[in-house]
C-alpha cells in the first residue's frame, strides 16, 4: 500500500523516541575512525513542514517535539537531538522537523555513507530534491567530499528487498533502521524475515526496528518474535504517553527494538525515558519500559533457540535502579513520578539561553522542499 505519508505524524512522540535513539546509535559508531554505513529502509521525505500541509491536520507534533520545544531542563543525553531540531529552525519558531535521513546526515561524518530507500513515488521525489539542495548548499559553502564514491545514495524501491544487495557494507560497520508504516499486517512478518536474512549477511551490524504498540495481535507479537532471532544481544524500549483511546484509534505508544545494541545505550535510556514520560505524558497510564537480553542456540538433538535475559530488571519509580531477580522489565510511569496527574506539560520554565551552534549545520531548511497537502 502506498497511502501512508509520514507528514501527518511528523514530530510526534514516536518520532522523538526514534530519532533520539537513532542519534545515540550513530554517535556510538562514530567513536571509531573507521567509516560506517547507515541504511534507512523506509526513508520518507527527509524533512517535514509543521506549519503547513499534512502536519497541520492532526498536529501530532504537539504530543512530541511541541512540549519539549521550550523546556530548559532537557537531560544532557537528549540535548543533541534538541539542538539538531532547533538548528534547522534558526528563527526560533518551530516550523520544520527532520526525518531520519536528515538526522543521520547531520550526525554522520564525511567518510560515512548513507543508503536510503523509499517506495512511495511522491516521497522519493521530495527526498531526492531535498538532498540535492542540501549537497548544492554544501558546495556553495566550499565543502567538498573527501572520500571516493557517492556518499549518499537514494534508491526508489522496496527497502526490505534492497537491503539484501548492500549487506555487508564495505567497512563491515553499519546501522540499519527499519521502520515501515505497518499499514498492512504483512509488514510485521517482513520485518522479522528481513532481519533474519540481514543477520546472516552482516551478523555484526546494529539493527534498529521502530514499531507501533497497538492492540492488534501482530504488534504485540513482534518484539517477542524478534527476541528469538539469533544475535549478540537485544534491547527493547517502549514509550507510552497515555492509555489507549476508548475508540481504539490513535497512536499512544511505540517502541524501538535494537539488535546488537551498544553497551552504553541502556544506561542512557534509563536517564532520559523518565523525563520523556514526565514531559510528554498525558495521564497516569504514561510509562516507559526497558528490557534487554541475548539469544543463544542450545545444542541438543536439534538446535533450539531460547531467549535468555541478561539484564538486571525490575519495577519501581521512573528512573530508579532496577531490582534484580523480579523477572520483569524495568518500568517507569507517570503515576510513580513527581509529575501531577494530567499536568506533565505544565510548569515549564522560561527558555534559558542555549548555544545552538554545536555540531554542523549545513542546510537552510526554509529552502528545502516540504511535504504539503494537495
From TrEMBL:
Residues at the catalytic site: 179 (proton acceptor)
Region feature (Disordered): 301-374
Keyword line: Methyltransferase, RNA-binding, rRNA processing, S-adenosyl-L-methionine, Transferase
Record carries keyword RNA-binding: yes
Catalytic activity: adenosine(2030) in 23S rRNA + S-adenosyl-L-methionine = N(6)-methyladenosine(2030) in 23S rRNA + S-adenosyl-L-homocysteine + H(+)
Annotated positions binding S-adenosyl-L-methionine: 19, 42, 100, 118, 158-159, 179
SUPFAM superfamilies linked: S-adenosyl-L-methionine-dependent methyltransferases
Pfam family for this entry, one: RsmJ
Broad class of enzyme this protein falls into: transferase
Function, as annotated: Specifically methylates the adenine in position 2030 of 23S rRNA.
Self-association and partners: Monomer.
Family listed: Belongs to the RlmJ family.
Name of this chain's protein: Ribosomal RNA large subunit methyltransferase J
